[in-house]
Sequence to fold (679 residues):
Amino acid sequence: MNAVAKKIEATTARLEGMSLPAGGKWATEAREAALTRLRTMGLPDRRDEYWKYTRPDTLTQTDAPEASVLDTGEAPLFDGFDRLKVVFVDGVFDAEQSDDLSGEGLNIERLADVAAKDIHWARDVYGVLENNGQSPVERPLAALNSAFATDGVVIHVTGKVSRPVNLIYRHKSDSSDAILHHVIKLDAGAELTVLENGPAAARFNKSMEVDVADGAAFHHVRAQGRDHERRAVTHIFGRLGTESVFKSFTLTVNGRLTRNEAILELTGDDAVAHVAGACLGDGDFHHDDTVFVTHDAVNCESRQVFKKVLRNGATGVFQGKILVQPGAQKTDGYQISQSLLLDEDSQFLAKPELEIYADDVACSHGSTSGAIDEEALFYLRARGVPKDIATDLMVLSFVAEAVDEIENEDLRDEMLARLEGWLERRRD
Amino acid sequence: MLEIKGLKVQLEDEDKQILKGVDLKVEAGKVHAIMGPNGSGKSTLSYVLSGKDGYEVTDGSASLNGEDLLELEAEERAALGLFLAFQYPVEIPGVGNMTFLRTAVNSQRKARGEEELSAKDFLQEIRAKAKTLKIDADMLKRPVNVGFSGGEKKRNEILQMAMLEPKMCILDETDSGLDVDAMKLVSEGVNALRDEGRGFLVITHYQRLLDHIKPDVVHIMADGRIIKTGGPELALEVEKNGYADILAEMA
Ligand SMILES: Nc1ncnc2c1ncn2[C@@H]1O[C@H](COP(=O)(O)OP(=O)(O)O)[C@@H](O)[C@H]1O
Ligand SMILES: [Mg+2]
Fold:
């Protein structure tokens, strides 16, 4: 039997006994279509080129490996921000802890409620952007998500919303296995900021599909914590209209395994898409950023900025691609992925790619891996800064380019404070 | 203040001796100058005193106010009051000049068991001191030395010195790359810090700087040794005749 057939067989076995969630007409159709995709592709295995650097087995196996809940005693993230809180506990919406699901300029519903209806606008986005993102590279875990997710939020943004929506993922049970799927649709000229934080579950599979219409702006700031053994695979699918803006930043600390995929398609002229991430890994930590940006319109800009600080055997992975389709002239594409290796046990595996079918474009990419700059470290120490603090300053300096991608200054400071707190705790 | 006895230093990775027995004593309140041809070991001496890795002391000692320097980490030496103005100040992208200096000042205070400087007091002090060195607010905000001109870097070194108020200041070719105006600014900065309790070791190639910062003692260093010590007139002699005569005389 060839590898593909084997994979399909394993997937069939894995899906044995799993049934699609009950729902209304549109959701059932979307889920069935996703399941068909999944059965055709098969779940990823370690022979897949796209999973060369990250082992998918713990993400695909039947039971989630256990992960204990960590309490750092820190104040919750985004505490000082005026925001609309939507809380999920082990992947289940918690009305009690959440704010009233309403706000000016937006309509926000639970996926569970939306999926029960026979007709809903979400059908134009749910599983649709995911499906578009399945080629040229397959993302079976996203299809799995579209097929089996029962909870999440469905947000329709009609105006410029100043109060961010904060999706908070609490983790309670050591064996929780959560799937969440969010759909966000921004009308022309609309604006929304989505914040996400929390460890979510022992194992977490999350998708977010974001449809950004002409002139709309979507900002996303996420902090993935925190529990040491947690595992997560997340996908963000973005479709960008003319003159629209999509900016996403992710901070990851801890966690045994994280695979964050961002699949963005610039479909309208003059659109701007930025994805950035900073991660700090210590010990048994594997962090994978997989990004695929497709330019399919004229005069668009995309940036990918990823920084990884690794120590004590931590592994960082970056797979980033810029695809410039024929006719996507005046594309301005930038991609940088860098790692700071604080010891010799840690490793960074990077696969930066450019594929360009237009002639009038400016694309650059770079990937580096290096140790701390000893000259700079000495300079700081010669001024009286102790070695550990000097090292932390260098770490902050290293990730600055990624953190600077956050447009809102308060959010930037919030992320920096988190980073500093983490570094400080490591010092003791 | 600073006392160096028979200091011999070689590179850690290479079997190459650079300092071949340096003796030097700088008293509080005095300015000593070290001159000497390129490659004679002047920078190495300043690095070894301030605790840079990569050098191995094979013999001799160095102490600051009686404390053995060579046993201490770089940051501990700084907290004791040792300061090195670098020949090549290092650029540190992403670390703001202010953040850096405040961390440095407060780290030293903490190490000495003193109270940390409040953000407000620090700001007030740095603004005043920056002004006299013609360092503008923008330079203070920018990442450490990034995009600074040669002269700006050197002025930034002096600003750090002024903020840290060290006891023993080593200036390694602080005059190199400075135009006449910048040289004046830097010298004034240094002279403002001259004080009975503070010692200076000024490394330079040129008499020019010593016109502004008047030394009490001048040493000539060659091939890892101090080969001649004298008064300010020694610097004038070097200026006039170069090192050749002195080297020949010593050979
Ligand atoms: N890290 C190093 N690696 C190799 N050679 C070095 C190193 N540091 C100093 N040297 C050598 O030691 C000698 C003295 O250098 P240095 O102290 O910089 O002299 P100066 O400052 O007087 O010009 C030179 O020959 C220089 O090449
Ligand atoms: Mg030198």
